[in-house]
Amino acid sequence: MPSDRLEGHRCGPLKGVAEVPGDKSISHRALIFGGLAAGTTNIEGLLEGDDVLHTAAAVRAFGAEVERLGDGHWRVTSRSEWRSPDAPIDCGNSGTGARLLMGAAAGWPIRATFTGDASLSGRPMERVLGPLRQMGARTEGSTLPVTVHGGTLTGISYDNVKSSAQVKTAILLAGLRAVGDVEVHEALPSRDHTENMLRAFGVDVEQEGGTVRLGRHRDMVATDVIVPRDPSSAAFPIVAALLVPGSEVELPNILINPLRTGLITTLKEMGGDIEYRNVRSSGGEQVADIIVRASTLTGVEVPAERAPSMIDEYPILAIAAACAGGTTIMTGLEELRVKESDRLSAVAEGLGACGVEYQEGKDSLTVRGAGGPPAGGGEVAAHHDHRIAMSFLVLGLVAERPVAVDSAGMIATSFPTFLPLMRNLGADIR
Ligand SMILES: O=C(O)C1=C[C@@H](OP(=O)(O)O)[C@@H](O)[C@H](O)C1
Ligand SMILES: C=C(OP(=O)(O)O)C(=O)O
C-alpha cells in the first residue's frame, strides 16, 4: 500500500482564492432528507468527500434513487417508503452518516445493520440508540455493527445534554413518523441545519428557548438544496493565512451560521484579521466571502459554552494557539475524546512532538504559545483522523522545522481537495 505520509514545510506568503468544498453537515442532510421527501430533490454544491459518498450509497440502499449529474450536482428521488437494505450499510468513517441514518431508518417498519471503519466502530452509538428505543425502536449492539429494527414510534421529550446535533437530528428524523409530541431540549444550542432544512422541506418545526419541537405537519416535500461552503474546512486555510507572514487569502461563499463560527470569533479575539464581505442569504443560510490577512495572535481563554459552535475546530485552534503569544485555555472539551480519534490526546501528543508546551486535562487543553514559529520537527501520529492530519500540516508551514504527519489519506473524508487547494495558495506540503 502506498504511504500517505506527508510533510508541511515552512513557506512564503499564502496568496489567492481558496474555494473550499460544500458543507459536510448540510451535504449529509441534503441526501437523507431528499431520500425521505416526496418528489425529487436537486442538490448543488454537495461535498463529494468519502463520508458523504457513504451516505449517498446508504440512501440508495434504503430505496431512493440517487444520481450524480455533475460536479457537486446530485438528484435524489424518493420512493414512497424506505425498505430494508439487502446488505449492511457501511458508513465508513462518518459519525454523522451513521447516527442520522439510524434515526431516519427507525421510523420505518424495516431492519438495517450499520457498519463502519475501525474508528467509527469504536465510537459511542448508545447516545442515539437510547432515545430511539425510548420511542419504540428495537436495537442490537451499542457500537458498530448496530442493527436497528424500526416501526411505529411514539413521541419523546429528550434532554440533549451533550448538545449533539447528531443526536438531535436522529430524534427529529425518527420523530417525523412518530405518533405524539417530539421535542429535544438543549442547554447549549447545537448546529441548527436540521431545523432549517426540515422547514424548507415543508415540516413544522417550532423553537422555544432551548427546545425544538416537531409540529403537526411532518410530511416532507422535496425542495432544491444549495450547499454553502464548509466553515470547518475553511478553518485550515484561514489559520494558515493568519500564521504565515505576509499572507492574504480570500474564501468565497462560506457558511457563517453563528452556531458554526466559534473558531472565527475566537481567532478574532486573538487578534486575527478576518473580514466578512458580501454577507448574504443563500439556500436559507447566511454566507459571506471571508478575507484573511496574516496577523500577530495572542492567547485567550475560550469559554466552554462556545464548544458546540466550534467542536470540530479545536485541533486547528490549538495550532493557532501554539504560534500565539501567551497562553490559550480551552475547556469543555470532553466530546473531543469520542471523535474520529481521541482528539484531545492526539493534539496534545502532536504538540509535544513539535516542541510546544501544553497541559492536557480530562476535558481541557492549555497551550503555551511560542509567540512566533514553534520548533516543529515532529513526526505526528494523525490517528487516521482527517482534522488532526490537516492541523499539523498547517503547523509545518510556519514551524522552524518541517512537521510530518504519518497518514494523511483520511483527509479525503471531509476535504478531498485540501492538498491542491493549499498548494495553489503557496503552501509547501509534500
Ligand atoms: O450534526 C452534524 O452534522 C455534526 C455534529 C457534530 O457532532 P456531534 O453531534 O457529535 O456534536 C460534529 O462534530 C460533526 O462533525 C457534524
Ligand atoms: C467529528 C466529525 O465528523 P463525524 O462525527 O461525522 O465523523 C468531523 O468531521 O470532525
Automatic annotation (TrEMBL):
InterPro entries: Enolpyruvate_Tfrase_dom, Enolpyruvate_Tfrase_sf, EPSP_synthase, EPSP_synthase_CS, RNA3'P_cycl/enolpyr_Trfase_a/b. The keyword Transcription does not apply. Pfam families: EPSP_synthase. The active site is at D312 (proton acceptor). SUPFAM superfamilies: EPT/RTPC-like (SSF55205). Keywords: Amino-acid biosynthesis, Aromatic amino acid biosynthesis, Cytoplasm, Transferase. The keyword Phosphoprotein does not apply. It catalyses: 3-phosphoshikimate + phosphoenolpyruvate = 5-O-(1-carboxyvinyl)-3-phosphoshikimate + phosphate. Phosphoenolpyruvate binds at K24, G95, R123, Q166, R343, R387. GO terms for biological process: amino acid biosynthetic process; aromatic amino acid family biosynthetic process; chorismate biosynthetic process. Residues 12-419 form the Enolpyruvate transferase domain. PROSITE patterns: EPSP_SYNTHASE_1 (PS00104), EPSP_SYNTHASE_2 (PS00885). It comes from the Bacteria. Pathway: Metabolic intermediate biosynthesis; chorismate biosynthesis; chorismate from D-erythrose 4-phosphate and phosphoenolpyruvate: step 6/7. 3-phosphoshikimate binds at K24, S25, R29, S164, Q166, D312, K339. Catalyzes the transfer of the enolpyruvyl moiety of phosphoenolpyruvate (PEP) to the 5-hydroxyl of shikimate-3-phosphate (S3P) to produce enolpyruvyl shikimate-3-phosphate and inorganic phosphate. Belongs to the EPSP synthase family. Monomer. This is 3-phosphoshikimate 1-carboxyvinyltransferase. It comes from Sphingomonas piscis. The lineage of its organism: Bacteria, Pseudomonadati, Pseudomonadota, Alphaproteobacteria, Sphingomonadales.
